[in-house]
Amino acid sequence: MKESTSPLRPAPEREDLVAGLHARGVCYLAPTPHGDERILSDEELIAGLAQSPNARLRFALAALLLAHPDLADTAANVAATLPETGRRELRKQYLAAMYLQRMWRTRLRLHFGEQPLIPERFTSANDSPIGASLPAPDDMHGKRGLRALCEDSPYNDWSSYEQVIEMLMNQPCGPESLLPLNGHEI
Hints:
This protein is an all-alpha fold. It has one domain. The chain has helices at residues 14-23, 42-50, 55-67, 72-79, 84-103, 105-112, 143-151, 157-169.
């Protein structure tokens, strides 16, 4: 049984999450939306991605934050509403996006234009998803922090984050498809 992200609405289905990403210009995941998917708020999309059983969808949360760093505050607010496993995953993907943004800043700027930096959060031992303090985002341009974050995983997360960057930069839709989120209802 799926957990609900809201007491009134059921947890979003995979197709709803993919459509929510596509609507925000992150369109490297299949299937292409048909138009009958449920429209998700930013909060529902972020919570749904963080709690998804699908690893590609969870990693797409980092891509979403890279494409829309202005969602960083929303993500931080959503983290407080999630059960522990979802909160831990959201923090992990937030940190990954924060570090990746510093590592790939030039390439991201060329692709998306000038964007605000994702604020430093979740690096203290109390807030960190790995239970230990993490390096500052600018330490070695984010590389040291991402390495520490990835070393905690039994999987090859480093490679997965390299794929996130490559798929985001080479996706079928370009940065021109990004929707303005400030003042725009999705």
